[in-house]
Design goal:
about 130 residues
């Protein structure tokens, strides 16, 4: 990501030095999304659907991509789980008292993979 950003900066600097218009970050974002491997298909769909065009900066893409890749790495050996499906299935199940207390204990020691604070999971993160 850093190398791409450096190359992009050099390209825009050269264009500016020649008196030509710089290329927007939106083109870089599109190229980065285009070269991502197949396992990032879910990420690409979400990024394109839920991010407004004016908010699609390279820095935001890099941040979200790193979080997504880190979450995939944490679940090594298992398939990438879609958070929407997990949230939906959790709402449909009514936990019994034993499972509820077990879940409460897990939640107290759980570490959010987005903000890295204890006591909640990503789907409940306020950030």
């Amino acid at each position: 990501m850093a190398k791409l950003r450096t190359l992009w900066g050099e390209l825009n600097s050269a264009l500016k030095a020649r008196g030509k218009q710089e290329i927007t970050d939106l083109l870089l974002v599109g190229k980065v999304l285009d070269i991502l491997p197949a396992k990032f298909k879910m990420f690409k769909s979400g990024w394109l659907l839920f991010t407004k065009t004016e908010e699609k900066s390279f820095q935001d893409l890099a941040t979200q991509l790193l979080v997504f890749a880190w979450n995939c790495k944490e679940g090594a050996g298992s398939d990438i789980k879609e958070e929407a499906l997990l949230a939906n299935s959790a709402q449909q199940k009514k936990p019994n008292s034993a499972a509820s207390s077990s879940e409460t204990r897990k939640k107290k020691t759980a570490k959010c993979k987005y903000c890295l604070q204890l006591g909640h999971w990503v789907k409940q993160c306020k950030k």
